[in-house]
Give the backbone structure.
Amino acid sequence: MAYVGILLVAILVSFIIVRIGGFALQLTGIEPEVARFQALSAFSGTGFTTREAERVVGHRTRRRIVTILIILGNAGMVTVIATLVASFTQVSGYMWFFIRLAIIVGGIVGLYQIIIRSNVGRRITDWLQRPVMNRILREAPAIEEIFHVEKDWAISLVMIRGSSKSIGLSVADITAEGDIEILGIDRAGTYLTRPNSEEEIVVGDRLLVYANRKSVKRALD
């Protein structure tokens, strides 16, 4: 049964690593669902050739996070496979085989519920996420173009940092010249679609804008 315990610990650590990896990618400006999916993809070694994957490898900090996830994922898979095989090598009889299998499956389901679904899991991961938060936020791309429309116009994601000139300004102030349109604001997990003209910009906001490239850099950087 010792190998079963080691197996469950390895799976528990894997859940935590994937969750923290997704959080780290999210801090660099990747949307939460995309960040979690890409973290799982990197950790499991699956890999998907998608536009989101290109965004992940297009920035130094994101490449570093994905590299760490790939390395840890390879080590984790070796550990899981080795302990899984060892867990059944000394089992005698079908009854004990199925009992041990039920323990493993039940343990995996229980760990998933604890780490992914429960408040306890959120507290654990929140505590583990704090050391990486400030470092990654400093390296997140300030302006990321996600779709080129024409000439100098594009749809971009803009992260509002502490040094941004736009902090405290309203949506109306920023869009007054007519070369920036704010399509949405991602603020602490809440997305404001077509925000009110009086909405003020605060540190940590991520703006989805349709704008002239030069105007974005001048007004929001």
In short: Residues 127 and 158 are 27 Å apart (CA to CA). The chain has two domains: 2-138, 143-220. The two ends are 57 Å apart (CA to CA).
